[in-house]
Design brief:
Strand order of the largest sheet: 3-2-1-4
Strand content: 5-15%
Radius of gyration: 27 Å
Structural class: alpha+beta
């Protein structure tokens, strides 16, 4: 059954959106630009479900374009991209469809995202596996993928990084008693996510002779 568009009102609180009325009843609020794009006008007789399909299809295209624009500049996990699309106000059903399409097309790969994240962290802000694992999970990467990626970080690489930042940090403790310096350095490395075995080995090397 067709219904008539009886009014199209601009929202006082948001001038970029309009409210459409069908048979004098509020129907939907959509971006103003869609009014002309979809050919909607007062007096037009159209089925409500047709309008809904047109709006959904247009939003899906905009959501995909927005996602691809983001992906052209960076790598996103599934969880991160979902949050980005939610912030833009896209509807859940469209977000689910777009995310699935992006994954199938290979644009979103949590494994690749996790690998890049770990590489960046190890290069610019070194930390141990424990903290990296938690950061990846917080970013929406599943635990299994996080474990797989972190298993590729060699122990000697982690030890080298721990040694570098411990050596730099130890300069702050030169006037402290050796036991106090060890305790503070241990706490510092632990907060950076390094395992106890690595911490003890590094502390012995860095504070040797202090």
């Amino acid at each position: 059954m067709k219904q008539k568009i009886t009014d199209i009102q601009q929202l006082s609180e948001n001038h970029l959106h309009r409210k459409i009325y069908l048979d004098d009843e509020p129907f939907v609020v959509i971006p103003s630009e869609l009014i002309d794009k979809l050919g909607l006008r007062v007096g037009l007789e159209i089925r409500a479900e047709v309008i809904e399909k047109l709006i959904t299809a247009d939003e899906a295209m905009r959501a995909k374009k927005y996602a691809l624009d983001l992906l052209s500049n960076d790598i996103f996990s599934k969880s991160q991209m979902t949050k980005q699309l939610e912030r833009e106000g896209f509807r859940e059903e469209n977000i689910d469809i777009i995310i699935t399409e992006l994954i199938v097309a290979g644009h979103i790969r949590d494994r690749q995202y996790a690998e890049k994240w770990v590489q960046r962290r190890l290069k610019s802000n070194p930390r141990g596996r424990k903290l990296l694992r938690q950061e990846l999970v917080d970013k929406g990467v599943d635990k299994e993928t996080a474990e797989q990626v972190l298993s590729e970080v060699k122990t000697e690489v982690e030890e080298k990084l721990a040694h570098q930042i411990a050596k730099k940090r130890a300069k702050m403790y030169t006037k402290l008693p050796n036991d106090t310096a060890k305790r503070r350095l241990h706490g510092f490395l632990a907060r950076r996510g390094f395992d106890s075995d690595i911490i003890m080995s590094v502390i012995d090397q860095v504070l040797k002779g202090q």
